[in-house]
């Protein structure tokens, strides 16, 4: 382990491993297989990068995204590591140059897309280099892509079991930031890693504050939220391509720098927008879930959802793109019952098997339970991954506990009204019946004579809509899409009608602004001015080197420099995140800047 610590300090600039990192490095460096579940920002990459530098031969890293490969290779090269990638963004000459260096055994790590890896020519090259120079290890990043139940399924990942068959003596490590118990088993089975040692870190991301609001003018709600993060980078997720473009345009009109990203845009537009997001400060990316997997930008300060995600797994993966540097970040979501209805409709109309739909609905139910929660959000989120914690104190429910009221009787009245009117009408008509409104439709249908007519006159229209919204969200009512959104009773409704289940809902209130929590070393006053000067130096340096700013140094490293103000190269070398190569390359310029 002394060799691993030496690499950690002198190459990557850190003095100690975190959590399970040391055990994982030891397992793989000694030739063992590993299945690693570690949250985004937890340091997964070091778990294979350090063994790669300890073992003879080239480490092969399977990665699904060009952007992720490019950024990780740039960061490794900045640290003095011989790393390259092979993907479709390279010219023929560039790819040939990388292959020649690989064949000569000059590379420590080679990042490669699964499609290219499985090409017969590449497999033959692997066998040749293994005979000549050895393969240090195979790292399969974003391993959840192998799961057909997962949210980022990639069919080509299913064929990666060939690695264990053709290279049985080479250690393999599969890594992902999120996978429930079922997905973990599927990863192990499909990658032939059932005998691999498993490392499951805590899924908690304590630096992320979770906040969820009911939709009430969502575009303005989003703007108000983003204004709490002036000049900071963030991601806004929307369900549809049209909504992505409309939201990006609205944010630009409001004076923000916002870019759209979805699969329907031309490839060159997507690439340009992604590159700007990675390399410029303060850009808001508005995107579908086509954007984000493997984005290695550490200083994303917020992730917002304007639509309900498909599952807790998806939500966790998407919000995990905030605060990868460990500094405070925020996950915000605006949601409504219509989101749940829309998701269920998409599932009903999908071509998936009955089993797929059942599991997908179950996962959606779990997500609805999270957004409906009146207690700690983090408890519900981590319980899904089999982890128990105490109340976090860093979510909206902990900081500003919601008021609730016992809505069991109104809920029973609502369900009775659905039944008495034949389960053929939407919420608007049902509310008219409950409130005793003799509209033309109510009278025409004879619903002014049913026993539920007028029994809910004590509640206003807004409150009744909240009751129906919660009944649908918690699956006491179903929506019949073939009959224009008519509400129908589910089996669960019997429990409420018999009084065998409780039904508390939130009292709608205007949420207070929650100031983001602070963590780590935070510069203030004159230190903050030094920090801004350091950021400007970093931006200029990154532009000259044509790499993202965070590849030079993370914000956390610059903050520590601003607070400690080292006056010599020796002192600067003790700052977290500064290895030998970076100290040599940037140390003199930083000391000069600090002394000036």
UniProtKB/TrEMBL annotation:
<dbReference type="GO" id="GO:0006281">
    <property type="term" value="P:DNA repair"/>
</dbReference>
<keyword id="KW-0227">DNA damage</keyword>
<keyword id="KW-0862">Zinc</keyword>
<dbReference type="Pfam" id="PF00271">
    <property type="entry name" value="Helicase_C"/>
</dbReference>
<dbReference type="GO" id="GO:0006260">
    <property type="term" value="P:DNA replication"/>
</dbReference>
<dbReference type="GO" id="GO:0009432">
    <property type="term" value="P:SOS response"/>
</dbReference>
<dbReference type="GO" id="GO:0043138">
    <property type="term" value="F:3'-5' DNA helicase activity"/>
</dbReference>
<dbReference type="InterPro" id="IPR036388">
    <property type="entry name" value="WH-like_DNA-bd_sf"/>
</dbReference>
<dbReference type="GO" id="GO:0006310">
    <property type="term" value="P:DNA recombination"/>
</dbReference>
<keyword id="KW-0234">DNA repair</keyword>
<dbReference type="GO" id="GO:0046872">
    <property type="term" value="F:metal ion binding"/>
</dbReference>
<dbReference type="GO" id="GO:0043590">
    <property type="term" value="C:bacterial nucleoid"/>
</dbReference>
<dbReference type="InterPro" id="IPR044876">
    <property type="entry name" value="HRDC_dom_sf"/>
</dbReference>
<dbReference type="InterPro" id="IPR001650">
    <property type="entry name" value="Helicase_C-like"/>
</dbReference>
<dbReference type="Pfam" id="PF09382">
    <property type="entry name" value="RQC"/>
</dbReference>
<keyword id="KW-0233">DNA recombination</keyword>
<dbReference type="InterPro" id="IPR004589">
    <property type="entry name" value="DNA_helicase_ATP-dep_RecQ"/>
</dbReference>
<dbReference type="GO" id="GO:0005737">
    <property type="term" value="C:cytoplasm"/>
</dbReference>
<keyword id="KW-0378">Hydrolase</keyword>
<feature type="domain" description="Helicase C-terminal">
    <location>
        <begin position="218"/>
        <end position="365"/>
    </location>
</feature>
<dbReference type="Pfam" id="PF00270">
    <property type="entry name" value="DEAD"/>
</dbReference>
<dbReference type="InterPro" id="IPR018982">
    <property type="entry name" value="RQC_domain"/>
</dbReference>
<comment type="similarity">
    <text>Belongs to the helicase family. RecQ subfamily.</text>
</comment>
<feature type="domain" description="HRDC">
    <location>
        <begin position="524"/>
        <end position="596"/>
    </location>
</feature>
<dbReference type="InterPro" id="IPR027417">
    <property type="entry name" value="P-loop_NTPase"/>
</dbReference>
<dbReference type="GO" id="GO:0003677">
    <property type="term" value="F:DNA binding"/>
</dbReference>
<dbReference type="GO" id="GO:0016787">
    <property type="term" value="F:hydrolase activity"/>
</dbReference>
<keyword id="KW-0238">DNA-binding</keyword>
<dbReference type="InterPro" id="IPR011545">
    <property type="entry name" value="DEAD/DEAH_box_helicase_dom"/>
</dbReference>
<dbReference type="InterPro" id="IPR002121">
    <property type="entry name" value="HRDC_dom"/>
</dbReference>
<keyword id="KW-0547">Nucleotide-binding</keyword>
<dbReference type="GO" id="GO:0009378">
    <property type="term" value="F:four-way junction helicase activity"/>
</dbReference>
<dbReference type="Pfam" id="PF00570">
    <property type="entry name" value="HRDC"/>
</dbReference>
<keyword id="KW-0479">Metal-binding</keyword>
<keyword id="KW-0413">Isomerase</keyword>
<dbReference type="GO" id="GO:0030894">
    <property type="term" value="C:replisome"/>
</dbReference>
<dbReference type="InterPro" id="IPR006293">
    <property type="entry name" value="DNA_helicase_ATP-dep_RecQ_bac"/>
</dbReference>
<dbReference type="InterPro" id="IPR010997">
    <property type="entry name" value="HRDC-like_sf"/>
</dbReference>
<keyword id="KW-0067">ATP-binding</keyword>
<keyword id="KW-0347">Helicase</keyword>
<dbReference type="Pfam" id="PF16124">
    <property type="entry name" value="RecQ_Zn_bind"/>
</dbReference>
<dbReference type="InterPro" id="IPR014001">
    <property type="entry name" value="Helicase_ATP-bd"/>
</dbReference>
């Amino acid at each position: 382990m002394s060799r691993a610590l030496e690499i950690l300090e002198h190459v990557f600039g850190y003095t100690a491993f975190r959590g399970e990192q040391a055990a994982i490095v030891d397992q793989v460096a000694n030739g063992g297989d590993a299945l690693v579940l570690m949250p985004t920002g937890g340091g997964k990459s070091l778990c294979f990068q350090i063994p790669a530098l300890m073992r003879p031969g080239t480490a092969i890293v399977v990665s699904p995204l060009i952007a992720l490969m490019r950024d990780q290779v740039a960061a490794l090269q900045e640290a003095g590591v011989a790393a390259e990638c092979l993907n479709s963004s390279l010219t023929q000459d560039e790819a040939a140059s990388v292959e020649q260096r690989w064949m000569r055994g000059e590379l420590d790590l080679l990042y490669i897309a699964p499609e290219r890896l499985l090409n017969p020519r590449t497999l033959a090259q692997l066998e040749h280099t293994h005979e000549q120079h050895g393969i240090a290890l195979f790292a399969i990043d974003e391993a959840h892509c192998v799961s057909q139940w997962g949210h980022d399924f990639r069919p080509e990942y299913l064929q990666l079991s060939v690695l264990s068959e053709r290279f049985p003596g080479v250690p393999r490590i599969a890594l992902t930031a999120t996978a429930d118990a079922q997905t973990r088993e599927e990863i192990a089975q499909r990658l032939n890693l059932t005998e691999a040692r498993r490392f499951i870190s805590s899924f908690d991301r304590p630096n992320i504050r979770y906040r969820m609001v009911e939709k009430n003018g969502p575009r303005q709600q989003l703007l108000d939220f983003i204004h709490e993060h002036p000049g900071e980078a963030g991601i806004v997720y929307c369900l549809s391509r049209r909504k992505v473009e409309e939201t990006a345009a609205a944010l630009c009109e409001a004076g923000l720098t916002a870019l759209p990203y979805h699969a329907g845009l031309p490839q060159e537009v997507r690439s340009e927008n992604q590159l700007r997001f990675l390399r410029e400060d303060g850009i808001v990316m508005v995107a579908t879930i086509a954007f984000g997997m493997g984005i290695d930008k550490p200083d994303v300060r917020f992730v917002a959802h304007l639509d309900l995600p498909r599952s807790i797994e998806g939500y966790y993966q998407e919000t995990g793109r905030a605060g990868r540097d460990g500094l405070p970040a925020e996950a915000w979501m605006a949601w409504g019952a219509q989101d749940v209805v829309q998701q269920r409709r998409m599932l009903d109309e999908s071509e998936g098997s009955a089993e797929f739909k059942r599991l997908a609905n179950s996962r959606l139910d779990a997500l609805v339970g999270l957004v409906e929660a009146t207690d700690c959000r983090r408890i519900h989120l981590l319980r899904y991954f089999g982890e128990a914690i105490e109340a976090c104190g860093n979510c909206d429910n902990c900081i500003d506990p919601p008021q609730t009221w016992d809505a069991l009787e109104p809920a029973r009245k609502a369900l009775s009204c659905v039944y008495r009117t034949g389960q053929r009408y939407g919420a608007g008509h049902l509310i008219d019946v409950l409130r005793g409104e003799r509209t033309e439709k109510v009278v025409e249908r004879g619903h002014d004579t049913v026993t539920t007519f007028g029994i809910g006159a004590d509640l206003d229209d807004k409150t009744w809509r909240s009751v129906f919204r919660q009944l649908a969200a918690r699956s006491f009512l179903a929506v019949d899409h073939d009959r224009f959104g008519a509400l129908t009773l589910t089996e669960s409704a019997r429990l409420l009608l018999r009084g065998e289940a409780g039904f508390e809902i939130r009292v709608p209130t205007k949420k207070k602004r929650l100031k983001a929590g602070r963590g780590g070393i935070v510069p203030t006053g004159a230190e903050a001015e030094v920090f801004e000067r350091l950021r400007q130096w970093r931006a200029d340096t990154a532009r000259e080197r044509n790499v993202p700013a965070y590849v030079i140094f993370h914000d956390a490293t610059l903050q520590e420099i601003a607070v400690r103000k080292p006056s010599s190269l020796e002192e600067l070398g003790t700052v977290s995140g500064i290895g030998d190569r970076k100290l040599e390359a940037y140390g003199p310029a930083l000391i000069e800047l600090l002394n000036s």
